[in-house]
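Appendix B. Raw example, untouched.
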Amino acid sequence: MSSTASRRKSGAGASAQAMADAIRADERRRQHRTAAWALPTAALPATGAGYLTATTTNWYAGTAVIVLITVLAVRRIYRTKGSTWATGAAGERKTRRILDPLIWCGLGRWTVLHDRQIPRSRANLDHLVLGPCGPVYVDTKTWKSKTSKVRLDARGHLWYGRFAQQRTLETVVWEAGRAAEALGHPVRPVIAVHHAAIPPGGLISGGVTIVQASDLRRHLRSLPKEPGWNRARVRQATLLAEQQLRPAA
């Protein structure tokens, strides 16, 4: 197994990717069943069109028509619209790559755990960051529309285009709270957004900071330092997190 495939099975976005793979496998089984009857059905008109072309031009053109019709039929049967789970998994892997330099260049001051199961729940934590600022929970959102604004309304509520994100914020706060219970220390909740534009400096709504994913590393480094969160404390918290928050996939 390649190192990339191994990371996908065990690292950031692993549980979302597992769900995407299961959905895709089910879709592929349905497509195979459709192909079993649809392709033989399409063979008759394809052969007829090929024969007609061959009689009016040549057999090369007739064969090309048969191949073209067959290829179009196969593509139509096996086309896929993609999966929000796969999109989410890809976004989490992008966030991991953004966070990796904290570990590489942090000299033990930073640790990041990805895709961790919340105890007694089916939910998972996308990314748990431990560093000089204390614990931070980072939830990845892949909001692909570049024309839909991410904004706050007059009451301070978060919107993505015409979709209110109050439930999203409540979920992120709840997830950060569960991480805090596991660590015995308050955890800052942050949403890192891919693609959709976030106003410079980020947004704050419902106790959650929303930042552009590309600015996430800079945001974490700019947070006030928590007293006592040195390398030793980060190591201790990492060991505790490893014990309390198992990999989700």
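End of appendix B.
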